[in-house]
Amino acid sequence: MNILEVEGLRKEYPEFTLDNVSFSLEPGYIMGFIGRNGAGKTTTMKAMLNLIGKDGGRVMIDGLDYSKNEIECKKKIGFIMGEFDYYKQSKLKTIACVVKRMYEDWDEEAYKGYMKHFGLSEEKKVKELSAGMRVKFGLALALSHNAKLLILDEPTSGLDPVSRDDLLDVLRGVIEDGTRSILYSTHIISDLEKCADYITYIHDGRILLSTDVVSFKEKYLLVSGDMDDLARYSDIIIGHKDHAFGFTGLILAENKDRIGSMKTAPADLESIMIYTEQEASLNA
Amino acid sequence: MRNLLYKEFKLCTTPTVFIFMAFVLMLLIPNYMYLIPAFFLCNAIFQAFQQGDTNNDLSFTMLLPVSKKQAVMAKYLYAAIIQLVMLLLYIPMILLNNAVTPQPNEMLDACPTLLGGVLTVFALFNLIFFPTYYKRDCKPGKGFLIATIVIFVWIFTFEGFFIVSKAFADQVWIFNWIQNNIDCIPANSASMTAQLTAILIGLIIYALLTFISFKKSVSNLDKVNL
Fold it and tell me: How much is the pTM?
């Protein structure tokens, strides 16, 4: 059974529509949720959690319909939106004291462990923490109530590379037993290369692709050639960048046989996103 | 709900709540509008919401395993508890007022009827402040401003009525009855019954308007995009 199923999620604003967003996530995996600013990542996450009213669609958490079982579903979810930006004048222990009362499955030992692991002192106030430490505190809270699904919206944006790497190790550890999953939105695509099993790519409120990372990357190839090649194969090149020796661009792997002598290389997630967005903005 | 209330008191209560509660001491001022301390308590609730707004309290609450209705209910219960404490504080202060300044007030006397008046002030605050807060952007300023204007109009009207009734007690029988039964320190069972009825009416108004307000707030928050 999927731990998360999003089916036909819709939210209409005057200038933006989240249109028929659907994807699912099995237990034991990390799904990277990518897309440029304003593509609809945060709106999707908020609509999933009923923080904004949706205009259609259904969200299932561990087999439960979220709309009908909101409280039960929330107990199974740990949600972090960026850094922990609440009650800045309060001590961490005061906040933890409030949060732990809300969850029957609160694991005090795990909480103490994460606090120690992240180097957080309960005596400190939120305002005394750096951006990175605030993210870690939010994570410590989310991870300590045995959530089956962690929904993380830009959790690593305030962290230095070492802390990010450390966090990714923690996230891998969280899903290790195969019972928990993570939906993880970020602009730092290199983090997803390290930890994501699945990728869901949203563009302008629509899901372009939702599949495993290997399949996602295998769908594309990076190509490089001279400017004549660019002109010759422009119909199959999905975005490109010019440089002193010609250009580098992206193609669908299925078009590999149509590119003549151009050099190819495996595509990485960041390149796929950059070139796809470039193409989309040219066509807009 | 108990856990949510714990959160309200632990994370959202500011010292100003207790400072404004101390304004009940204004009942020792002779010839004063004794409903004013009740307004100050409304201000304290507004301050707590203001503090909550600064701390992104609503967003935090909605990430906890609670429904929007429960989140709203917790705020109402929190306000109701503070209002009840203030109401109870009025009682010893009324007795103290009677002992220290036994001469009649120019406006409503410090008497049991005052408690009914206090409840109407709280009822008006609840009716206006909460649904306005839970509308669109969940900012407390607008609701408090409107509530302040309405409450002051009500306080001046309410107190003004007792000034008029005192002035014309000898000419108009109903004003005479009010002065002998409603706006006085109860001297017999008839005046005590009348004043307890005034409290009961205040309580009914409070319960009714707060209930209407709660329904409206829940419906409003449902439409808010957090």
Answer: 0.83
